[in-house]
Specification:
alpha/beta, 11 strands, single chain, 2 domains, SIR2/SIRT2 'Small Domain', 6-stranded parallel β-sheet, Rossmann fold
Amino acid sequence: MKQKLVIFSGAGMSAESGLKTFRDHDGLWENHRVEEVATPQAWASDPQLVLDFYNMRRAQLRKAKPNDAHELIASWEKYFEVEIITQNIDDLHERAGSKKVLHLHGELMKVRSENDPQNIYHWEDDLTLGDRDENGSQLRPHVVWFGEGVPMMQKAEEMVRQADLLITIGTSLNVYPAAGLIHHVAEESHCFLIDPQIPEMDFPANWIILQDTAFKGLQKVEQRLEIKKETN
């Protein structure tokens, strides 16, 4: 039976694909304050600005490609039962070939009904005011905004509890409740943290800390796990 490897990825995972995060820009996300574009209050006060912002992010994502780190993780499905929990709203893990991906904070390529969160639609084009579901409700980005609940947290916690191996990569561990996932890992699990900036916190003895970019850090994990790649 394959070991269960859980990847917990954050914005640093997609940075090498050219996708930016507000935490890299002094509190700005693509020149916008988070409060202007990523809260329920922003949606209520200026929905057009919010739609314009996410339409731009969606257009940017269409041009982006999975990077070497995404590809490397996808290749590990030959050796492990790989499950991914991501804070990212992009689809780069899936496009790299990863099959089990749980999005904690929603998905940029999906929209949902303003009045019924269960009405979710795949959406690649611009979303406009007047785009409605079959019940006449305005559609909004399928994104968990600051101040909203995170409906996939319980499932993510269970995934982490069952992990034989956990790799936390490209996340500041500052955004809660997502950052609290690392406290659900079993004591006997082997854990890695990869990030260019290591958070100032005490890690248990079963954690290996790698201060590095996503791909370089994953290469070091691969060496430590002694993954023997098949050669033709």
